[in-house]
């Protein structure tokens, strides 16, 4: 299994590693989202803007999320994230995800190790590669 | 105190109808994302502190996600699900997104 991402330009002119996915909304429709591939994040976190887009009812409130800027108010939602495979197939991740509740706390959706941990993750800016590898896909490091 | 444990379960989608429906949305989202990438300098410099949404390769701006989504969905109902929504931070600064961990409630 190979899930490809892209290096995308963000608001500050910085190019960051992103993977597109769909998230199941409260009305059972799927909403597209671009996730930052964050190999240091313990868990996947939705921004407050995406939380509003999804109209999901929190299953738990007042969960804490901490980062460099200190803590941020957040909630836990139960939903599914769907990523697209190299063969246009889809793989779905069901469970509980965190979402911040203040717009300024997080401007981008973050794909954390609760999902990336299923895969070998390649984040290669010089080679212009972002991908998640699993099952029969693997990589080799070569020395020329 | 017990630490946070992920309960995420991974499954492959095999329903051909579901996959076909998803692919139609994929293409529309691709176009909206490409539109934003092509207009980033003007959009991000003019609308700091605002919520933006791209639908039907058209830009919408408002103060809240709810407002901007309502505008975009009204103008492009066919793009429902494939709109691109972003909050643009007020200030430009270096960002560290990593090391977000769960903390205890007190």
Name the features:
heterodimer; A: 144 residues; mainly beta; 8-stranded mixed β-sheet; 8% helix; 51% strand; B: 106 residues; alpha+beta; 3-stranded antiparallel β-sheet; 3 helices; 5 strands
Strand arrangement in the largest pleated sheet of chain B: 3-2-4
How many runs of DSSP E, i.e. beta strands of chain A?
A: 11
| Oligomeric state | heterodimer
Please state the structural category of chain B: alpha+beta
Order of helices and strands of chain B: EHHEEHEE
Distance between the termini of chain A: 27 Å
Mean residue pLDDT of chain B: 84
Chain-averaged pLDDT of chain A = 90
The gyration radius over C-alpha positions of chain A equals 15 Å
- What proportion of the residues of chain B is helical, as a percent range? 25-40%
**Sheet bearing the most strands of chain B, described?**
3 strands, antiparallel
What general outline of chain A do the C-alpha atoms trace?
A: globular
Give the structure's gist in a few sentences.
Helices cover 8% and strands 51% of the residues of chain A.
Structural write-up:
The complex is a heterodimer of chains A (144) and B (106). The longest helix of chain A has 7 residues, at 48-54. Chain A has 2 helices and 11 strands. In chain A, the strands form 2 sheets. In chain A, strands 2, 3, 4, 5, 6, 7, 8 and 9 form an 8-stranded mixed beta sheet that branches. Chain A has a 3-stranded antiparallel beta sheet with strand order 1-11-10, with no helix packed on it. With 144 residues, chain A is mainly β. Helix content of chain A is 8%, strand content 51%. By secondary structure, chain B is an alpha+beta fold. In chain B, 39% of the residues lie in helices and 21% in strands. Chain B has 3 helices and 5 strands. In chain B, strands 3-2-4 form a 3-stranded antiparallel beta sheet. In chain B, strand 2 (51-55) and strand 3 form a beta hairpin. Chain B is globular and about 45 Å long. At the A-B interface, strand 4, helix 1, strand 6, strand 7 and strand 8 of A face strand 1, helix 1, helix 2, helix 3 and strand 4 of B. Strand 8 of chain A pairs antiparallel with strand 1 (9-13) of chain B.
């Amino acid at each position: 299994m190979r899930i490809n991402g892209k290096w995308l330009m963000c608001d500050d002119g910085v190019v960051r590693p992103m993977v597109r996915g769909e998230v199941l909304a409260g009305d059972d429709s799927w909403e597209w989202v671009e996730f930052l591939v964050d190999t240091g994040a313990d868990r996947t976190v939705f921004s407050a803007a995406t939380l509003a887009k999804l109209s999901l009812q929190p299953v738990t409130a007042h969960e804490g999320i901490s980062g460099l800027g200190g803590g941020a108010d957040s909630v836990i939602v139960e939903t599914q994230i769907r990523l697209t495979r190299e063969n246009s197939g889809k793989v779905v991740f069901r469970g509980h995800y965190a979402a911040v509740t203040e717009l300024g706390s997080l401007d981008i959706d973050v794909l954390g190790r609760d999902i990336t941990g299923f895969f070998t993750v390649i984040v290669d800016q010089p080679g212009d590669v972002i991908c998640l590898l699993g099952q029969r896909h693997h990589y080799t490091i070569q020395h020329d | 105190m017990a630490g946070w444990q992920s309960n995420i379960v991974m499954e492959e989608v095999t329903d051909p109808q579901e996959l076909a429906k998803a692919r139609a949305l994929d293409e529309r989202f691709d176009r909206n994302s490409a539109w934003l990438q092509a207009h980033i300098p003007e959009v991000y410099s003019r609308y700091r502190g605002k919520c933006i949404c791209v639908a039907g390769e058209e830009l919408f701006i408002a103060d809240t996600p709810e407002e901007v989504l309502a505008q975009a969905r009204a103008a492009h109902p066919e793009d429902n699900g494939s709109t691109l929504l972003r909050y643009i931070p007020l200030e430009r600064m270096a960002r560290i997104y990593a090391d977000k961990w769960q903390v205890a409630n007190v």
